[in-house]
Amino acid sequence: MLKLKLLMGVTAVFFLVSGLASAQVVSNQAAPNFTLTDTNGQKHSLSDYQGKFVVLEWFNPDCPFVKKHYNSGNMPQLQKQYTAKGVVWLSIDSSAAGEQGNYPPQGLNKFMADKGGAPTAVFADVNGKVGHLYGAQTTPHMFVIDPKGVLIYQGAIDDTPSADIEDLKTAKNYVSAALDAAMNGKPVAVNTTKSYGCSVKY
What we know:
It is globular and about 40 Å long. With 202 residues, the protein is an alpha/beta fold. It has one domain (16-38, 47-199): Glutaredoxin, CATH 3.40.30.10. The protein is 29% helix and 17% strand. It has a five-stranded mixed sheet with strand order 5-4-3-7-8. A two-stranded antiparallel ribbon has the order 1-2. It has a two-stranded antiparallel sheet with strand order 6-9. The chain has helices at residues 2-15, 64-71, 74-83, 105-115, 129-134, 174-183, and strands at 35-37, 43-45, 54-58, 88-93, 121-124, 138-139, 141-145, 151-155, 198-199. Strand 1 and strand 2 form a beta hairpin.
């Protein structure tokens, strides 16, 4: 029993990683531009979306925390809700070759299709260039950029660092709160939080 408890503790430490203050971007400052090729072979630059709200979502199909938000329908629902309002949603997998969550483009497309995901585009950032640029530390790790290119939120998807689907019922979603406020011309009350989830597998 003691060995089992120790193993569970190690597992929890492995998976539950809080994003610390080592991010490479600063809230309320310009978000750095980048260019990535999506899983369908199309190039996208952040600058292409000047004038639109943009959400960057770091994900890993094999991470229990990511599975929580996709298996429950929470992440797909957010994607559909806000892309319908003109928000650009970019989902990025920065898992390196040979690491957990590294899939070929068709594998990432299948994951999204199977889970009902509806981002604007999906990317395999295999060399971790964009992940390191933004200081993405966990999956999920969320960033919200306003139409002027200013980073208005970065951190956790919500205030409940758990892989339990049931906890979604009482969780406060920081991403929707930031988008709703900014889209209605109001200040974003919380612009930085600690992300939680599996470590990004650079």
